[in-house]
C-alpha cells in the first residue's frame, strides 16, 4: 500500500458525459501528479500540482482539467467524454521537490 | 524516435533465473532513473531509484545506469513466481525551477517467472 488513495475504483459512463476522479496523496506529500495509462500509449503524464499550484502540463486534453485543494487532495475532471478516453487514470504523489513518486491504485474509466 | 524505448517482451524465465530488463533513451537531459513494478490492474510500485550514472543494489534487485550509452538496466537475481509482473522504466530531467519532475515511462516489459 503506497498510501495514495484514489476513488472511485471503477467508472462506467457514456460518451459526452463528465466525470470527476479524486486523489488523496500520502500524508505530508505536497506534489500530486496525474497519469493516463492505455494499452497503446502506455503511461502518459497529464498534469502536476504542487501545494495547490499547477506546476507542469503534459499530454492533457483541453477537455480535461484538474485542481489541488487546500487539504492537498486533487481532482481530475474529464468532460465531453469520448470512447478513446477509456483508460486507467493514476495519481501519484511525492514530498516537495523529491523525485520518488508513489502511485495510487488507479481509477479504471470505461466510456461506452 | 520515442524518448524512452523498452522491449515489451513478453519474457518468460524459470524460477531462480537471473532476469535482465533494459531501457534506452534519447534525451540526454534525463538525470533520474527509476524502475516500477506493476501487477495486473494495480498501480505502479517504485522498486529502484537512482540519480545519474552508476549501480544501486537492493536485495535481489540491481539497477544500473550508463549515461554515456543512454542505457539503463534492472537485474533480478533468484527470480520468484511473485516477481511476475510488468516492469516499467521511468526517467526525468532536472527541473528548471519549481518542482516539476514529470516522469517519462517506457511501455513496460511483461515478465513471467515459471515455478
N-to-C CA distance of chain B: 38 Å
Strand content of chain A: over 45%
Whole-number mean pLDDT of chain A: 93
What Rg of chain A is obtained from the alpha carbons, in whole angstroms?
13 Å
Report the helical percentage of chain A.
under 10%
Secondary structure tally, helices of chain B? 0
Average residue pLDDT of chain B: 91
- Overall shape of chain A: it is globular
Give the strand tally of chain A: 11
Main beta sheet strand tally, sense and closure of chain A? 7 strands, mixed
Count of individual helical segments of chain A: 0
Distance between the termini of chain A: 31 Å
**Topology of chain A as a string of helices (H) and strands (E):** EEEEEEEEEEE
In the predicted model, the low-confidence regions of chain A spanning at least 5 consecutive residues are none
Indicate the multimeric state: heterodimer
Largest sheet of chain B: 6 strands, mixed
Order of helices and strands of chain B: EEEEEEEEEEE
**Coarse structural class of chain B:** mainly beta
Query: What is the general shape of chain B?
Result: globular
Low-confidence stretches of chain B: none
What does this protein look like?
The complex is a heterodimer of chains A (112) and B (115). By secondary structure, chain A is mostly beta strands. Chain A contains no helices and 11 strands. In chain A, the strands form 2 sheets. In chain A, strands 2, 4, 5, 6, 9, 10 and 11 form a 7-stranded mixed sheet that branches. A 4-stranded antiparallel sheet of chain A has the order 1-3-8-7, with no helix packed on it. Chain B is mainly beta. Chain B is 0% helix and 56% strand. In chain B, strands 2, 4, 5, 9, 10 and 11 form a 6-stranded mixed sheet that branches. In chain B, strands 1-3-8-7-6 form a 5-stranded antiparallel sheet, with no helix packed on it. Chain B is globular and about 45 Å long. Chain B starts with a strand and ends with a strand.
Amino acid at each position: 500500500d503506497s498510501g495514495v488513495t484514489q476513488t472511485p475504483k471503477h467508472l462506467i459512463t457514456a460518451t459526452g458525459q463528465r466525470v470527476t476522479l479524486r486523489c488523496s496523496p500520502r500524508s505530508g506529500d505536497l506534489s500530486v501528479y496525474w497519469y493516463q495509462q492505455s494499452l497503446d500509449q502506455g503511461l502518459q503524464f497529464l498534469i502536476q500540482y504542487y501545494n495547490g499550484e499547477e506546476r507542469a502540463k503534459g499530454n492533457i486534453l483541453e477537455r480535461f482539467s484538474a485542481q489541488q485543494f487546500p487539504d492537498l487532495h486533487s481532482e481530475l475532471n474529464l468532460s465531453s467524454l469520448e470512447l478513446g478516453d477509456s483508460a486507467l487514470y493514476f495519481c501519484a504523489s511525492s514530498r516537495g521537490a523529491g523525485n520518488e513518486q508513489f502511485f495510487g491504485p488507479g481509477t479504471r474509466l470505461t466510456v461506452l | 524516435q520515442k524518448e524512452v524505448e523498452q522491449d515489451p517482451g513478453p519474457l518468460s524465465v524459470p524460477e531462480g533465473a537471473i532476469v535482465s530488463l533494459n531501457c534506452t533513451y534519447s534525451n540526454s537531459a534525463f538525470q533520474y532513473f527509476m524502475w516500477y513494478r506493476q501487477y495486473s490492474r494495480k498501480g505502479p510500485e517504485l522498486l529502484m531509484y537512482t540519480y545519474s550514472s552508476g549501480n544501486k543494489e537492493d536485495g535481489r534487485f540491481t539497477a544500473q545506469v550508463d549515461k554515456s550509452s543512454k542505457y539503463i538496466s534492472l537485474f533480478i537475481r533468484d527470480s520468484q513466481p511473485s516477481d511476475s509482473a510488468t516492469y516499467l522504466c521511468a526517467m526525468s530531467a532536472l527541473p528548471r525551477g519549481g518542482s516539476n519532475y514529470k516522469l517519462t515511462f517506457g511501455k513496460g516489459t511483461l515478465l513471467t517467472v515459471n515455478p
